[in-house]
Amino acid sequence: MQLRYGFRLYPNGPQLSALARAFGCARVVFNDALRVREDARVTGLPFVTSADLSKRLTASKKTPERAWLGEVSSVILQQSLRDLDSAYRKFFDGLKGKRPKMGPPRFKSKRDTRQAIRFTANAGWKITPGGKLRLPKVGDVPVKWSRTLPSTPTTVTVIKDSAGRCFASFIVETGPEGVLTPVTPQVGIDLGLGHFAVLSDGRKIDSPRFLRRAEKRLKRAQHNLSRKAKGSNNRNKARITLARAHARVADARREFHHQLSTKLIRENQAIAVEDLAVKGLARTRLAKSVHDAGWSQFVAMLAYKADRYGRAFVRIGRFEPPSQVCSACGVKDGPKPLHVREWTCRECGTVLDRDINAAVNIAKAAGLAVTACGARIRPGLVPAQREETGTRPEPHRTIVRQTGIAFL
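Above: the chain's sequence. Below: its structure in token form.
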């Protein structure tokens, strides 16, 4: 399978200028190619092929208006055309029902906070004996190596995020040598907000709530940004300060997800989770807490790590009612509001912890061999209430298009 490894880059001043030039050239080539295809569509001409766009790119580099495209590696310009083809392919596949629908390709802006260029093996990039990343027409860029690459990378993507940080993302091929030794435990996971994850064996993992803990700092940085004059250098400095504060929150959340997902994969042979409707939950009053938890990122990590290390990963349907079914007798007791954390089964009289009971039912629905040993059982007389929280309709989004220059 293919994996992506990211490492922090520390370019100096001239290297930052060379990277900025490469980002701009790749963006201009993408916009020019998109404008050529859009003009052909409006005028009723046939779809412009990739080969024709490549020939136009070669010709445009000989014109005075686009002569500066020769100052960067030609590979990143060709890869920019490949990115446009990929965007069109995904758009057409969405129209055919082969994948979720997405909008047509849009023009890129120089004000986008995230910029990226890609170097393939044809570009001649390499890792020097001193541990630096040698990029064509950029130089030897220092890299902070946090781990060893499992194999020789085939492609490197240089990314600059909104905080001004640069990263090198390598694509490597991995084989079956990473498969772990089989173990016995199997677990079901119920993701929540009070506790980030509740396991079917009774363990509860608290939610770090990184965004909530950093709200004061983020609010102060946002307030400082709003007081700066638009277009000034001070406003740009305040924007970078705010972006770095958000980046620290995202990095801490990602690290927590990586550590927890790796631990669960190593300890269990099979893992079952519920397919949550995150987009729907993000439109409720719990939106900030839902985004702060980052369930989708965590589940995606579990999925690819299970595939890499030879573990079983099962995702049950989102319409399964794990919190409504008694894990002891299997009787469905109806929906309950979120404030009901314990409920009594009206059939067998068992008092169950809502989260642990849901985790056990998730594991059972996935066909895992688990028991309800983690659910708390005691006599009780209070019946569960039958209410559910509602959702608000999705707001309409406005899409602004940018006009490019047809030089290709």
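Confidence is low (pLDDT under 50) at residues 371-407.
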